Amino acid sequence: MKMKKVLGLVLALSMVVMSMSACGKSSSKDDKFYIGGIGPVSGGAAVYGQNVKNGAELAVKEINEAGGINGTKIEFKFEDDEHDPEKSVNAYNTLKDWGMKILMGTVTSNPCKAVVAETFKDNMFELTPSASSTDVLQNGNVFQVCFSDPNQGIASADYIGTKGIATKVAVIYDSSDVYSSGIYEKFAEEAKTQNFEIVAAEAFTADSKSDFSVQLQKAKDSGAELVFLPIYYQEATLILTQAAAIDYNPIFFGCDGLDGILTVENFDISLAEGVMLLTPFAADATDAETQKFVTDYKAAYTDTPNQFAADAYDAMYILKAAIEKASVKSDMTTAKMNDALKVAMTQISVDGLTGADMTWAATGEVNKAPRAIVIQNGSYVSAE
Predict the structure, then answer these.
(1) Collapsing DSSP states into helix, strand and coil, what is residue 86?
(2) pLDDT, tens digit (0-9, with 9 covering 90-100), for 184-234
(3) Neighbouring residues of 143: CB distance < 8 A, sequence distance ≥ 6
(4) For labelling alongside 10, which of 26, 89, 269, 313 has CA 20 to 30 A away?
(5) Whole-angstrom Cα distance, residue 331 to residue 17?
(6) Which residue segments constitute the domains of the chain, with CATH numbers given?
(7) At what angle do helices 85-98 and 109-121 cross, to 10 degrees?
(8) For the segment 296-343, what is each residue's pLDDT rounded down to a tens digit?
(9) Residue 173, Cβ neighbours under 10 Å: how many?
């Protein structure tokens, strides 16, 4: 009799422990939306990833404080990939082990191209704030907050032509980079329909991006009044510095990759005076939503947010809208979430910092209007 009581007690305790264990697992992974983020927060492209991380965290804090998504909170974790495709895949696997069911990332195009193969294989929904290459959209489970590269090229040519900024244009682009070459290709096509001429198109590669004297001299000799730079800000600082050295002072015009040019250490920002770029966000905008975001961002991070921060902030609210539209529950499988969100993205319209009435095609591309900004007195201001 005593042995039966002991065995009964052991069995009861075992059931309690198993029940607590099961509840613990459910509590840790099924009572929140586990959303991961990937991007460079160290290395040469850190300004992009850090702004994305900050913008996303600010949105998550607001959403959670307001009660979450249909009462369910968001758990957000961001991993550094140093703008390296292999490290980005490693970061993805780390987040998957953590419990991620939705990916907000990655930040830059080449790492994103490596990760989309993984999210497709795992049937995971992916919303990238800033990877603009169309290559990331090939599998149907990835959507963009940013403009795709072709759209940036077309919009840039249209803006230059419509506004009559220049009649002779030179282009300096990175032929080894999908972001840069993708924008250039569509820019060149659209230029044929505009009232300006591309008088020089000079390429460089990842192996030759420190000396731009040849490209600049050809642009100068061609009489180009404007130099289009569909490149990242690191190379742009070298181009501006070397252009000043040969007394060449055209209008320099770029896309979202130039956002961050004022943050480069030891760069004389006076050389960026008058630089123009197309971007969906301007921190000096006077609308209440932008002003609140900039104020809150500065209070949290003692810095002015750039377009990448705004894209990520919008990304979290876009995910919220899609989750609500599809009635997604946190305990659904990754695959079921993916199936529901892909449909919902084509049915929602979102007013955000980076665009009003943003909508999405089934291909994953966003539809919204760009803004032009110009650097004046060391600050970004609206060019409109």
Answers:
(1) helix
(2) 999 999 999 999 999 999 999 989 999 999 999 999 999 999 999 999 999
(3) 126, 127, 128, 137, 345, 360, 364, 366
(4) 26
(5) 22
(6) 32-147+287-369 (3.40.50.2300), 150-279 (3.40.50.2300)
(7) 40
(8) 999 999 999 998 999 999 999 999 999 999 999 999 999 999 999 999
(9) 25
